[in-house]
Predict the structure.
Amino acid sequence: MTVVPPKFVRLIGKGRASDVGGMTSSVLAPTIRLRRTPFWDRVERAGVQVVSIYNHMLMPCMFESPEEDYRHLKGHVQVWDVSCERQVRLRGPDAQRLAQMMTPRWVGDMDAGQCLYVPAVDRNGFMLNDPVLLKLAADQFWFSLADSDLLLYALGIAGGAGLDVEVDEPDISPLGVQGPKAGELMSRVFGHEIYRIPFFRFGFVQFNGIRHAVSRSGFSKQGGFEIYVDGAENGVPVWDALMEAGRDLGVRAGGPNYAERIEAGLLSYGSDITRENTPHEAGLSRFCDTERSKEFLGRESLLRLESEGPKRQIRCVSIDGDKVPACDRPWRATAGRRFAGTITSATWSPDFETNVAIGMIEAEHWDPGTRLVIELPDGSRTATVRGNFYI
Amino acid sequence: MTVVPPKFVRLIGKGRASDVGGMTSSVLAPTIRLRRTPFWDRVERAGVQVVSIYNHMLMPCMFESPEEDYRHLKGHVQVWDVSCERQVRLRGPDAQRLAQMMTPRWVGDMDAGQCLYVPAVDRNGFMLNDPVLLKLAADQFWFSLADSDLLLYALGIAGGAGLDVEVDEPDISPLGVQGPKAGELMSRVFGHEIYRIPFFRFGFVQFNGIRHAVSRSGFSKQGGFEIYVDGAENGVPVWDALMEAGRDLGVRAGGPNYAERIEAGLLSYGSDITRENTPHEAGLSRFCDTERSKEFLGRESLLRLESEGPKRQIRCVSIDGDKVPACDRPWRATAGRRFAGTITSATWSPDFETNVAIGMIEAEHWDPGTRLVIELPDGSRTATVRGNFYI
């Protein structure tokens, strides 16, 4: 029996798989291990063409084409299924202490309702994740995760140190509402009070009698919100309400856009930052408060690293020439034949009409304007280190 | 510019994506975050058609068709790129203590050169992974992982308890050699000494002057070995030597086979067992030695759970009718309209000519011969609980 799955036919029909930023693409075997999201039926119905796996869960990446998705995100409003931003919930008397043991950022003066971008760092000073920390109450915190099982790190510390804290992954599935019309759409569904949520703060909305946290945040620089949908069974009604209310705003399904996030300098843990990097290499020194964060397990290591200073660091790089192929492996950068660093994310930017890229660049070569040669799979390209991202 | 990538053309040409056990398939966006393996150029050249993501890394799943791969595995020998079985290395005076804190299985009398299948369990008694533990020396252990970042758990305990141990992920990429002709192939490449490695023990081989650990193990019941290739740059020569030496044995690239591993009762962490399950529910009670494993962090919890006994447990289930669709979400099982459990893995078995499945079945319904009704996406099927897997 040979049945060609409908989605596959559609992909062939549109000839779009080729369009994923010039990538070669692989077909993914479905399995329970790579979890569906509460919104996935809707995501498929919306015509998702390319997906990723993030925290053992499906994440939609591309619907129309990389460029159409990019233009639409910058001009309208999109609903993103980012259920894969799993929450690690800490509850109990030692919740704050545990949070502080995991990050060099000072969390002791957080307000309830505040979000903080916190590098999660091990005792040796290496990055384990770069989540957003939400303070729900004096004894309850959520880490909203990048792609690693930070839950296991929290469980390990709690067990190893005998802390009085419960650590779990609640049934919370974030939905991003991103783009310049995000506020308008959100206010239509949840009321004008959503405008009273400041950037990187969160509040609560009621929908069908269920309370969901809503933060002013998201993995784009186009403005927007994240709805922490409480309970998988409550996901589809929220999705449908947003799509219905936003019809005249041109709302559609989307996902984190590769070109847009590179332009904006939004780092991807696992690509641009890994467990091989310190927060200083990741350009996150401003979030390392070793003075006040005395309980942070990597404090000694970071104090030592701070005195030495980083030998390489994240930089924005523009790569000359036509659209680059998929950056599915690190690309070596040289300057005058000497190793100068590694490119970890790169794609064509429709707005800036160049290849925008993120790299970990050695100190001798990281000054703005430094010319590099990048070794791509299909040949070498010249490139330039920039002083800032495209913002 | 629209360029259809070669692999996509090939998939269309053969019309095989449909063949993935009746699955609907998604196209995966390449990114550095989902790591390539040292063997991946060879894997692509060998014609991989379907992949998965495991421990943030690519894993080949299917080359010819599910059935052809299955027949070949049972009759010949395959080389599997299982680089995604990442190693968590514990080194130092507290290495054994840390290993013991992570599992209820007694590791105190392991020999160097021994492998143990160890449930990794948190302090509340829930499964975090089901790795194989290798003892390299009195002060060095490797966990060879299933799909979760157990590295972060080990780092957390080490940091929280202040242990004198170094925890890292070495540059080791396992290569499976599986099938009835695995011994013949391995001996041709590495010499007859490989036959002296007993089941679930490991030794070392030299290849091109590099020392690699080799264990008699693997994620199939067809017999075989795993080569812990030391150093990414040393991967391709080992791959090529195996392919060259095994030409007349019909060697080819393969990967864990869904039907074969279900028949054999090989559980998949993330599908059949999750962080919601205790080792007793996972059917792993024989590996829980709470008497001797006094340092294990979940000892109190497991002692309580043992006195209660599990209320649900892993069972083999056969599902009636034609080939089932892809089991990409849990399927509810009922008996006399009452909830009876959940099916987590299922596919057609060519040899046993039935749909073989794994489920977490409630105690009232887990006796062999119990008839169930399974709710599939395309309708209900009758099914039977079995007393054992197909071995």
In short: The two ends of chain B are 53 Å apart (CA to CA).
